[in-house]
Amino acid sequence: MTDSLTVRDNRTGQEYDVPIVDGTIRAADLGKIKATEETPGLAVYDPGFVNTASCRSAVTYIDGEKGILEYRGYPIEQLAEKSNFLEVAYLLINGTLPSKAEYDAWVHEITYHTFVHENVKSFMEGFRYDAHPMGMLMASVGALSTFYPDARNISDADNRHMQMVRMIAKMPTLGAWSFRHAQGKPFVYPDNDLGYTANFLSMLFKMSEQKYEPDERLVKALDVLFILHADHEQNCSTNAVRSVGSSQVDPYSAVAAGVGALFGPLHGGANEAVLRMLRRIGSKENIPSFIDGVKNGNEKLMGFGHRVYKNYDPRAKIIKKSAEDVFEVTGTNPLLDIALELEKIALEDEYFVKRKLYPNVDFYSGLIYEAFQFPPEMFTVLFAIGRTPGWLAQWHELVQDKEQKIARPKQIYTGDRQLTFAPASERWR
Ligand SMILES: CC(C)(COP(=O)(O)OP(=O)(O)OC[C@H]1O[C@@H](n2cnc3c(N)ncnc32)[C@H](O)[C@@H]1OP(=O)(O)O)[C@@H](O)C(=O)NCCC(=O)NCCS
């Protein structure tokens, strides 16, 4: 067997041998296929990059058919159970697990960069009273580039490290302050005695008490959620970070683009839709008629199905367990019973089985967030905080990858050509 593709161009009768490497052919090799010397070479039309690899990456592995997700080779189940978010962040960015000394130094660095410049606080206060927290987060992450102009020096390894530490450290501060602003509550400064996730909860919920003491079970559940969202290879927001980062801009600007991409309902917003759906169903008796409606094509069962996973999304299994832990603290949410029943029925129903539709990460996450008393607008902010190490790991890989170029897709031009322009004074006579 030869690892190549033989292509015959029926326009010219010419045959080409295109090498196959890692299950891909190089688009540039297709570019050598031309109808005439003058015409442009053959290109691939692939809106949404449905079947185009944009990079080589060693960060995250997904096998959607088997329901496998691994960060740097470690199964997500093991990381969620035995690691913590900051260790996972280290792993994603550095590629290996830290030694004790490396871990301690990493946690220390992140803990001591959680504060932001006071001017960040004043401009965040300037947002409208009803500003969406994702808009605030996107703007404030982008604005960090003005506070750290040295971040533009992306060719320096120490400098890159510093900016990645800053961003992971400050994201919860910015996220929590976006939330407090919407609530009209004073901003809470970071508490460096608390761990990463506990400190985030403190900045979100602390009022007049001297010290905020979160329930450890809630801290663990939120930490697990951050781990589950930490990376997911070349998704829309990661692609945005890479695409903007490919211009060699500073990482704050690149990550702000990622936050923008995540803001969209097709990406970060599905968990909110699940909650709305569960509320509308209202009680278990209404499930059969709801399922009939889905099967008749009236609507979708939100939180089910995935472009990549054609099996149980491994993150959904872990989240289901986290939901139980959280409800132990907060009391159960009646919507959980509806969700469990829906899942049971759907997993046995031929419609869903045939189409390989299983619960995805969003099916249970909204329920957990609601138990924390987060309003739906905050759900995507939580996702963004979790995804930050993944965006940075991918950005870091990009800037060191000699094969990468500025992202610049081709187009198929469908407009007019060679029109003759008449000035407005003639056209409007
Ligand atoms: C995630 C999603 C966009 C993936 O879409 P996709 O890979 O393009 O899959 P398709 O839309 O081609 O779906 C294949 C079939 O399953 C059906 N299907 C997919 N998701 C479904 C759902 N959640 N409920 C009911 N039917 C669904 C489609 O109607 C289609 O049926 P058909 O073959 O009879 O036309 C889709 O499953 C979806 O919309 N799910 C609900 C939203 C959601 O939970 N999003 C979060 C993703 S993390």
UniProtKB/TrEMBL annotation:
Pathway named in the protein's UniProt entry: Carbohydrate metabolism; tricarboxylic acid cycle; isocitrate from oxaloacetate: step 1/2
Catalysed transformations (reactions): oxaloacetate + acetyl-CoA + H2O = citrate + CoA + H(+)
Coiled-coil stretches noted in the UniProt entry, renumbered to this chain: none
GO cellular component terms attached to this protein's record: cytoplasm
GO molecular function: citrate synthase activity
Swiss-Prot/TrEMBL keywords: Transferase, Tricarboxylic acid cycle
GO biological process: monocarboxylic acid metabolic process; tricarboxylic acid cycle
Presence of the UniProt keyword Transmembrane helix in the record: no
InterPro entries attached to this UniProt entry: Citrate_synth-like_lrg_a-sub (IPR016142), Citrate_synth-like_sm_a-sub (IPR016143), Citrate_synthase (IPR002020), Citrate_synthase_AS (IPR019810), Citrate_synthase_bac-typ (IPR024176), Citrate_synthase_sf (IPR036969), Citrate_synthase_typ-I (IPR010953)
Transmembrane segments: none
Stored PANTHER family: CITRATE SYNTHASE
Entry similarity comment: Belongs to the citrate synthase family.
Protein name according to UniProt: Citrate synthase
Species of the source: Nocardioides lianchengensis
